[in-house]
Amino acid sequence: MKDSMWTSVLIICTLVVVLAFVLCWLPFHVGRYLQFRSLDAPSPLLSVLSEYCSLVSVVLFYLSAAINPILYNTMSWKYRGAAARLFGLTDGQQSRCRTASTLKGEGSNGWTESTASF
Q1: Domain membership flag for residue 109
Q2: Are strands 98-102 and 109-113 parallel, antiparallel or unpaired?
Q3: Domain count, the chain
Q4: Are 47 and 36 in contact (CB under 8 A)?
Q5: Pairwise CA distance, residues 40 & 91, whole Å
Q6: What is the pTM of this model?
Q7: Domain range holding 94?
Q8: For residue range 39-90, what is the model confidence (pLDDT) as tens digits?
Q9: d(Cα 115, Cα 118) in Å, to the nearest integer?
Q10: For residue 101, what are the CA distances in angstroms to 14, 59, 84, 92, 111?
Q11: Does the CA dihedral 114-118-83-22 come out positive or negative?
């Protein structure tokens, strides 16, 4: 039962991320299409729409890059836990963290990851 619930949450999260990506990049492609069409038959309306889509797409480029962590944080408790451990916001629990070790034969300190469970 728990596996099927986890699978459905994963599918929903993936669909939301893909939908956000499509919505953020759609004005760019619409603007490029309108710009291409305005070259064939010059029209002031198509030129204005193309410029408007270009302006909106610049804002949505940055939103596309920033929205994924926000979506993951709101939809996944595992992501929230991993982000809290990354930024040191947990209540002192040190489970599954990176440890320092010495690489064999080289005598230099390196980092190995003991487990990678999120």
Answers
A1: yes
A2: antiparallel
A3: 1
A4: no
A5: 63
A6: 0.57
A7: 2-113
A8: 887 888 887 888 888 888 889 888 888 888 888 788 878 888 888 888 888 7
A9: 9
A10: 36, 44, 24, 22, 6
A11: positive
